[in-house]
């Protein structure tokens, strides 16, 4: 652009530059040579005297602008106010930025140059010609566009080297060819790191979700698992989704290998194992791949493999600790030992006596009971038929002859009992309690035969020697007999007893020949039955010389004296054998015994229960009525509560039930009276039954209420109660209370009743918690752009119980509809605005947040607003503004002169320089509309003003030559019509110059 300038004489030029704005930037105009867009293309060819010519290289359509020359002197600043307009013609490709696969696309090669009707267009994709395609018109139609059609398109006019700037055509398509790759490949071992990569072809690039089974586990193209575990095993697939569609990959399987773990041994059957049972040990192992199993007893390998180890007809020697070892190629693990304890009743029971040989009175003796049993037995010691001790050892310190006898031990555990053979303790001791008895006793009358008997207690038996006074009779043996005794035989006699353990001499007995009592008998007063409470008299009849003194003996006890013995109000304690003893100084004699048998009514009546201990429902139970009476009772009655339930001494209940529980007593009867026993209680135990749940309050439950669940259970003893929601334990105790219940508490509940005899679950009861609407929101059927004429559906989403059936729709504050769905068919811009819904059930209501409907529509009501009257003087310009209503606002405007097909301008404003009728066309992505035409009239004026001109080459050389000739002719004409002719732009003093 050629340029000259002049400045006042006496001024000194400080700076010259070009700018393209009349707006100051921080108090100064920007220098184009410092603008990056121009610094490499702008060359100043002038000087600082009067030449201000510049060269602008590689011009594009963006360089179309008004340019100004600026110079600064040491005294002021100047700007060429009218400036220079640069108009650049160019080729442009009009194309939609984004299209979807399958659409038809029309590309248009637009030029601001005037082209001939014969102009042929050449199209390029990615700088490569489209198969010699040359179109006479300026449109390229791509039918059913494919993703391969994506690229940068440009056009050219045949015969010209200039190619338009490239425009990107971006073909959108949904995901396809979705697959998953696993890295690393091969076997996955627990602890490895694994990466899944989702491979997907789509435009725009898809969002990726990862699904394991039916659950989303991650997002993003890469899904990584560090230190993978067996829980990560399963089928994975990815979902690729963009705005045009979605697609799932095929599932891939992660099979995570891991060594054995959680190795344990279970025993079947559980509980007590008896000798002879069959037992199975099961080795439980978690591994991948499945492990090989080996069995061990203690530290010894059983040399058997497999998950189970079975023992039939098990023996006690099979008792011990067992464990198994699980092994696969990734490792091994050994279970904890389980103890197999074989139970059996006592066997091989015997008694071992400490020491050996003779046991002498005063020794210490220990008896040891040897018994084999499992569990270890309890030991009892029996002498004769009497239990004398317990424990494996029975010790006797300082043994006496009373301890002599047969001993055996009884070994007993819960599985049985067994007696040992009897062993005999024979305690040796020296003679003792040596005495002499005279036979016959009493008065010895001359002529009688008398035998003295030496009584001696010893082991072994003693040898006996006899003495009269201090003289040894020289006779041995236990008896010393005198026949036809004479008075000279009177005197003191004693005996001496001796064995190897010692000796003892008896006290002396006096043999006095007298006439002792004889014919002693008892006479009982009255006759017949003696009943408790009667009075009884016994009379002792005795023949003796001298007369004898009488004493009365019951059993071996003296109970009275005198010839008469009376009992007033006789009792059962007085029953027994009575005899009298007649005695004088010469001897004594007993009568034969007479028996007193006092009759009485029942007493000490009681009930015994067999078996003792806990009684389970279904057991057999026997009640025995124990009674003391004379004569013995033969008539018994049984009562439960106050009701007779049976008779006889024994009352049996087979298969006892809870209905049989209660208090029982018996009544014992003989001819003298009757008596009741104290009551005994039968308490039949049984596991829980009839387990159920009651809910309080009944009826509808609303969020915030307090609810109580009560577990009703019949059991003996009373059961412990556990509560479950679904399959999860939540509480214990008969009552389960929920204060301020929420919807999270809805679900199925049951209780478990358990005692030591069993357990039982109730049926499920359902808590259905009602609540008012919440989480109310609005979804729009189309998440994409809504265009006028579309059908749009709004859906009111609400969470409530019971489900809300009443919905209202609001636009702004106005009700516009009801029901869950609100449809707008053929939507218009009037429907734009904020919408919300209200969800109502009988427990309350709630509004959703507002959602905005923004309805797009193409330009309409397009008109031209003209500044001024539309009448201009030649050389002036009038500004036309294009006004339009559209959503989104139109940003693309084209200006046309009526009856011309090519646009004469673009942009919302257009400066008209010539007469004519002009209209504008407004565009947005939804369409276009043209305005009515307005008229611009240009009037010629008498004088011409100076013009600062610029020419830009366009088209072929011949066009340029024609334009240059026209410009030259125009300049010559101007020079002839104006006296003062100068192409130099008159400097205008900057009003801001100081």
Structural class: mainly beta
What is the name of the CATH superfamily of the largest domain? Immunoglobulins
Shape: rod-shaped
Largest sheet: 7 strands, mixed
Describe this structure in words.
The protein is mostly beta strands and 994 residues long. It has 11 domains: 13-55 and 68-73 and 955-977, no CATH class; 91-165, Immunoglobulins (Immunoglobulin-like); 172-254, Immunoglobulin-like; 258-340, Immunoglobulins (Immunoglobulin-like, Sandwich), CATH 2.60.40; 345-425, Immunoglobulins (Immunoglobulin-like, Sandwich), CATH 2.60.40; 431-511, Immunoglobulins (Immunoglobulin-like), CATH 2.60.40.10; 516-596, Immunoglobulins (Immunoglobulin-like), CATH 2.60.40; 601-682, Immunoglobulin-like, CATH 2.60.40.10; and more. Strands 8, 10, 11, 13, 14, 16 and 19 form a 7-stranded mixed β-sheet that branches. The model is unreliable at 942-957 and 976-994 (pLDDT under 50).
């Amino acid at each position: 652009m050629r340029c000259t300038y002049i400045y006042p004489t006496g001024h000194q030029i400080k700076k010259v530059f070009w700018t393209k704005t009349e707006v100051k930037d921080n108090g100064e105009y920007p220098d184009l040579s410092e603008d990056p867009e121009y610094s490499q293309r702008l060359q100043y060819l002038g000087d600082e005297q009067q030449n201000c010519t510049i060269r602008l290289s590689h011009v594009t359509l963006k360089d179309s602008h008004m340019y100004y020359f600026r110079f600064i002197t040491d005294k002021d600043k100047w700007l060429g106010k009218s400036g220079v307009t640069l108009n650049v013609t160019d080729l442009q490709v009009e194309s939609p930025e984004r299209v979807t696969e399958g659409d038809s696309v029309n590309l248009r090669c637009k030029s601001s140059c005037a082209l001939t009707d014969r102009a042929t267009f050449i199209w390029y994709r990615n700088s490569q010609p489209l198969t010699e395609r040359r179109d006479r018109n300026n449109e390229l139609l791509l039918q059913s566009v494919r993703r391969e059609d994506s690229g940068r398109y440009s056009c050219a006019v045949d015969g010209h080297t200039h190619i338009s700037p490239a425009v990107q055509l971006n073909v959108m398509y949904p995901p396809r060819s979705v697959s998953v790759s696993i890295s690393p490949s091969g076997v996955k071992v627990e602890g490895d790191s694994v990466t899944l990569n989702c491979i997907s072809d789509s435009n725009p690039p898809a969002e990726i979700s990862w699904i394991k089974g039916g659950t989303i586990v991650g997002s993003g193209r890469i899904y990584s698992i560090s230190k993978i575990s067996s829980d990560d095993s399963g089928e994975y697939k990815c979902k690729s989704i963009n705005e045009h569609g979605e697609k799932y990959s095929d599932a891939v399987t992660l099979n995570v290998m891991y060594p054995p773990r959680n190795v344990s041994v279970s025993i079947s059957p559980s509980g007590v194992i008896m000798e002879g049972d069959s037992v199975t040990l099961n080795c439980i192992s978690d591994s991948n791949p499945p492990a090989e199993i080996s069995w061990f007893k203690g530290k010894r390998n059983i040399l058997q493999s497999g998950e189970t180890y079975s023992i039939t007809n098990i023996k006690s020697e099979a008792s011990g600790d067992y464990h198994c070892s699980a092994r696969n190629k990734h490792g091994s693990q050994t279970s904890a030992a389980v103890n197999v304890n074989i139970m059996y009743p006592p066997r091989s029971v015997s008694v071992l006596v400490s020491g050996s040989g003779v046991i002498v009175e005063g020794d210490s003796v220990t008896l040891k009971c040897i018994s084999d049993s499992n569990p270890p037995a309890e030991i009892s010691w029996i002498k004769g038929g009497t239990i004398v001790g317990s424990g494996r050892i029975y010790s006797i310190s300082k043994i006496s002859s009373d301890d002599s006898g047969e001993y055996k031990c009884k070994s007993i555990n819960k599985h049985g009992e067994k007696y040992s053979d009897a062993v005999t303790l024979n305690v040796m001791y020296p003679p003792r309690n040596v005495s002499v008895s005279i036979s016959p006793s009493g008065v010895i009358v001359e002529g009688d035969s008398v035998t003295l008997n030496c009584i001696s207690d010893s082991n072994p038996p003693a040898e006996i020697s006899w003495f009269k006074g201090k003289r040894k009779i020289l006779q041995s043996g236990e008896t010393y007999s005198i026949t036809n005794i004479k008075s000279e035989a009177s005197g003191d006699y004693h005996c001496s007893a001796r064995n190897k353990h010692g000796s003892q001499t008896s006290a002396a007995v006096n043999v006095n020949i007298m006439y002792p009592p004889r014919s002693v008998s008892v006479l009982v007063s009255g006759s017949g039955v003696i009943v408790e409470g009667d009075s009884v008299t016994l009379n002792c009849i005795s023949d003796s010389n001298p007369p004898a003194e009488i004493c009365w003996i019951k059993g071996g006890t003296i109970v009275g004296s005198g010839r008469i013995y009376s009992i007033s109000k006789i009792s059962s304690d007085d029953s027994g054998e009575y005899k009298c003893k007649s005695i004088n100084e010469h001897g004594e004699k007993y009568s034969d015994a007479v028996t007193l048998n006092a009759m009485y009514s029942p007493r000490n009546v009681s009930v015994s229960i067999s078996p003792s201990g806990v009684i389970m429902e279904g057991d057999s139970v026997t009640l025995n009525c124990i009674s003391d009476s004379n004569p013995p009772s033969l008539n018994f009655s049984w009562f439960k509560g106050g009701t007779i339930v049976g008779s006889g001494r024994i009352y049996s209940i087979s298969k006892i039930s809870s209905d049989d529980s209660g208090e029982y007593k018996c009544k014992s009867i003989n001819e003298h009276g009757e008596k009741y026993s104290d009551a005994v209680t039968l308490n039949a135990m049984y596991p829980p039954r009839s387990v159920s749940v009651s809910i309080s309050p009944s009826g509808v439950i609303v969020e915030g209420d307090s609810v109580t669940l009560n577990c009703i259970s019949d059991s003996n003893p009373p059961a412990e109660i556990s509560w479950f929601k679904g399959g999860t334990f939540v509480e214990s105790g008969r009552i389960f209370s929920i204060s301020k219940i929420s919807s999270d508490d809805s679900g199925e509940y049951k209780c478990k009743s358990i005692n030591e005899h069993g357990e039982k679950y109730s049926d499920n009861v359902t808590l259905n918690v009602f609540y008012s609407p919440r989480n109310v929101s609005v979804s729009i059927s189309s998440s994409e752009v809504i265009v006028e004429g579309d059908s749009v559906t709004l859906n009111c989403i609400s969470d409530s119980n019971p489900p809300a059936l009443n919905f209202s729709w609001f636009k702004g504050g106005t009700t516009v509809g009801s029901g869950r769905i609100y449809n707008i068919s053929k939507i218009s811009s009037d429907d734009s605005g904020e919408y919300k819904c209200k969800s109502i059930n009988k427990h309350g209501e709630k509004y959703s947040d507002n959602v905005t409907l923004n309805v797009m529509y193409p330009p309409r009501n397009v008109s031209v607003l003209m500044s001024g009257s539309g009448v201009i003087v030649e050389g002036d310009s009038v500004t036309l503004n294009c006004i339009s209503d559209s959503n989104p606002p139109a940003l693309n405007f084209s200006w046309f002169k009526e009856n011309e097909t090519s646009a004469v301008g673009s942009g919302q404003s257009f400066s008209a320089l010539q007469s004519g009728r002009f209209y504008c066309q407004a565009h947005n992505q939804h369409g276009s509309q043209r305005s009515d035409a307005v008229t611009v009239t240009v009037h010629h004026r008498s004088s011409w003003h100076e013009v600062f001109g610029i020419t830009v080459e366009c088209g072929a050389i011949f066009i340029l030559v024609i334009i240059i000739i026209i410009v030259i002719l125009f300049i010559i004409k101007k020079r002839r019509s104006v006296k003062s002719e100068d192409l130099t732009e008159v400097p205008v003093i900057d009003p801001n110059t100081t």
